[in-house]
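Fold in tokens:
===
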Amino acid sequence: MSTTTLEDTLQTPEVIKTIESSPAPPSYRIEIFTQSDLLKQPFLFELRDVINTSYYDTGASSFEKTGARLQSNTQLADELQPTGFTAIAFAQKAIIGTASLKVWPPDAEGTAWKVPGYFERFSADEIFSASSTVLDIRPVREVSKLQLSRSRRILDIGGKGIAASLVKACHEELNRRMFPARSCIMLKCIREVQGLYWLKRGFRVVGEQYCPPYTWGYNKGFVLWAMERE
């Protein structure tokens, strides 16, 4: 098995454009940008607006969100770092979605992850106290992983699969850069809001942790899932 590291394969930024179309109108295309090229684009304000708008979307759940995901036009690019990249979906000239990948940082949340299903044994009132125990803890594997954040506008424009296409474009680009080494992408999502969505798209839960009320501006506490797909 190859021992090529993610840092070795992604060290030199470059611009790759991937064109995809939905099978029925409205059509869209997906382009992939490295950090350096993203900073040169004239649409950074629009991109920030799309991400912040979708950040408030909690679907049919009872969760409510306050506070913006991005505070500046360049924050996303700064978070990518030199080895990350972002896929952006365009319908004509309008941005309709984006997914970004970057190196998964060790102990990303500063709290140890519990094994999948750990919090299912507790009631809502018991979860907070359970989150402070040191039982059944294992770290999420982070070597050669990438983190994905996903943004949608207008619910995938009538279910045209834009979010799934963005994930596919990112994973294909990662495979191209990592070849012949195996690649794996990871994401974090709120179990009650997006968990089922990502389970249906081939991701599996590899860890979870409890986040108290007002974490990231949400009105109540939630279980955060770490998920991966090879």
